[in-house]
């Protein structure tokens, strides 16, 4: 009998799971349930001033840690978008602090230096603190907050001026509350054998194989929504939009009953296996009856809210020759990062048109600062951006604000262990995928979805 698999969540993790299921279990019927009006989740492409501008993730890593193509690149090729991959221009990024822009020091690992001599006054490390105590920095499998480890070894300035803005740019969180093992897995691995942080960073960098001439980042010409749409098509799955799943239970025959749709007109279907590719709270709610202990572990994950403000400045507006800059939390601004889109992405600067700047607003714990009207947020973004650049910026010809309420997971130390235990407690035929469980970044989410698909496919083959 033909097997049926439900993928609950139509973000990139769920879509990657659906594509993998088509490849490894081609005879199965796959249904993707998405509560929103479109697939893609935080892969959302918009328009501004006649140019394509992302309303969510703008790019993904081009390579995996072992030097192979990243899971996101492999997925793009799998769904027919290999020729649409584009790369950023070779422009440096900067840090904004103390009323000036300073180049981001080279040779760091998410802001953690492997050579303290390269900091060039951006941050002053504590002399002699990174000494060899005769034992590894971390016990096998142990976890620690990034900030705790780096402060102990390099001092406060390295965390406050380098690591915090780097992590904040990705997670909107603070180094003192983010898990080393989730946010910097390569460093956590080498810290289990190295006796100093300097040595651990260098070992992690050595393990990451860079292919000469290969750009660090990639994107999809035409926008990230193309990747989501192409994956949905390539999966061959039935895509149910506007179909929030409200109930997940087990039938007496060992099948999974999925109730979706609006309360007045629910739809009930049965499946042989289910993949939950959802944020933590809705995933926990669906798990509460079928797996109470994993549900509680999943529910513990916190999220940060952020907003993106995109501005179309008049053609000819002069900006520094940078891809953008990061802002340390200590500067007190709502702006935490800025990207000069039409400088960073040459394919977006074709022909005449406005200068596009996208600004990221808000960090974990700053949700109240985002509770303003879009016009107020845009004015704050323009004013603070001008202050950080030291110039007055013109009024944009067009602009928009994209809010991602509760959009970025905050991985406390021990997260990986808690999720491993939650997965171990799941009934057979049920898998978890996505940023809530395995980390942010498109390649990580793609790989997470693919692993979940492999898990349920193995289960289905065993019961056939």
UniProtKB/TrEMBL annotation:
User: Which coenzyme or cofactor does it need?
Assistant: FAD
Q: Which GO terms describe its biological process?
A: heme biosynthetic process
EC number(s) on record?
A: 1.3.3.15
One Gene Ontology term of the molecular function aspect: oxygen-dependent protoporphyrinogen oxidase activity
InterPro entries per UniProt:
Amino_oxidase, FAD/NAD-bd_sf, Protoporphyrinogen_oxidase, Zeta_carotene_desat/Oxidored
Domain Amine oxidase, first and last residues per copy:
12-456
The yes or no answer to whether the keyword Oxidoreductase is present is: yes
Q: Identify the metabolic or biological route this protein is part of.
A: Porphyrin-containing compound metabolism; protoheme biosynthesis
Record's keyword annotation contains Oxidoreductase: yes
Q: Which domain of life is it from?
A: Bacteria
Keywords for this protein: Cytoplasm, FAD, Flavoprotein, Heme biosynthesis, Oxidoreductase
Naming one, the record's GO cellular component terms include: cytoplasm
Primary site of residence? cytoplasm
Stated role: Involved in coproporphyrin-dependent heme b biosynthesis. Catalyzes the oxidation of coproporphyrinogen III to coproporphyrin III.
Q: Which NCBIfam families match?
A: proto_IX_ox (TIGR00562)
Q: Which PANTHER family match?
A: PROTOPORPHYRINOGEN OXIDASE
Listed name of the protein:
Coproporphyrinogen III oxidase
